[in-house]
Amino acid sequence: MGCSATLLPSPPPHLHRPPTFKPLLNRRSLLFLSTTLSFPATTISTSSATPPPQPDTTITERVYLDFSICPNYFTNRTLGDDLSNCSDSEPIGRLVLGLYGNLVPITVSNFKSMCTGTSGSTYKGTLVQKIFPGQFFMAGRQGRRDKGEVKPPLELIRNTETVESKAFVLEHNRGGIVSLPLSENDDDDDLKLNPKYHNVEFLITTGPGPAPQLDSKNIVFGTVLEGMDIVTSIAAIPTYKPSENIRQYNGFAELLGDGRAKTARAIWNKPQQTVYISDCGELKVAKPTLSPSLP
User: Fold this and answer.
1) H-helix or E-strand containing 159?
2) Is 139 buried (19+), middle (13-18) or exposed (0-12) by CB count in 10 A?
3) Which positions fall inside the PPIase cyclophilin-type domain (predicted)?
């Protein structure tokens, strides 16, 4: 007699699933966790970076430049090598300049030496070489004295400030800025190769607006304290302006290496009247009435 097995029915599928445990987190548990778990704190700095110190624009020296027009210079070459001997000079007026001797002492000392003549040379009797209307005018170009240019000074010290970053912090942001031109320097290349060469050319911005193309390239070392009307008068003097065709032809000739291109360009922006520095020197001010510091 055989045995028979009775198969029991399989349990429903949901009975094979493992039990699910749900953590019971009430408000008390969350409060406990918040006090026992620590998270890295983020520190927020409320202090701002310290601003860089402002350039020292204290006016330590004052000099003057007298400007005049010599009407017979181009027709009468018997004036010799000093335009200050012009017999029928027509005065334009005087500029009083304040110099930033604390910021760029070498540049200021050299400029003052050129005004007083202690450098072995002087600006007196030399031409305003270029006028760029609405921007600046330039004077103090070195070269031949009989051409109204500055005789190279022999008593100046080497200006090491031309490679110092602090010397270029001030901007040409208005009219009346006095600057040592490095990028705009108009001295002859042959003259610059002389080991005794010193750059004493200078420019003064004429306004009315800024001249940002000069920033970070030329050394601002002073400002006009008196005589902005004289600056405006000089800026209004007519200059030689080449046509666009001449400019293009000159640029093409220079590209081909034609040396005459530079010679021809030398007369561009030259004043059509003989504007020159008829006198210059230092001003001693015992009790200055002007602000001792200007931007």
Assistant:
1) none
2) buried
3) 82-282
**By three-state DSSP, how is residue 241 classified?**
coil
Any domain includes 12: no
Residue 113 is part of which domain span?
61-241+270-283
Retrieve residue 286's tokens: 């015992």
Q: Rounded to whole angstroms, what are the CA distances from 64 to 21, 86, 249?
A: 95, 20, 41
Closest-CA residue to 204 (of 114, 98, 81, 105): 98
Query: Cβ(123)–Cβ(140) under 8 Å?
Result: yes
Q: What is the pTM of this model?
A: 0.76
Q: Domain containing 83 — which CATH number? A: 2.40.100.10
What total of structural domains would you count in the chain?
Answer: 1
The H or E element that residue 181 is part of is none
Instruction: Establish if 27 belongs to a structural domain.
Output: no
110 backbone φψ class: left, alpha, beta (φ>0; ψ -120 to 50): alpha
Q: Which residue carries 């046509």 as its tokens? A: 243
Whether 190 contacts 166, CB under 8 Å: no
The tens place of each residue's pLDDT in the chain, 295 residues long, gives: 454 555 555 555 554 555 554 555 554 454 444 544 554 544 444 455 677 788 999 999 999 999 999 987 755 444 455 677 788 889 999 999 999 999 999 999 999 999 999 999 999 999 999 999 999 999 999 988 888 899 989 889 999 999 999 999 999 999 999 999 999 998 888 888 888 889 999 999 999 999 999 999 999 999 999 999 999 999 999 998 776 777 676 766 667 776 676 666 677 899 999 999 999 999 987 655 555 555 4
Asked if residue 107 lies in contact with residue 113, where contact means CB atoms within 8 angstroms, the answer is no
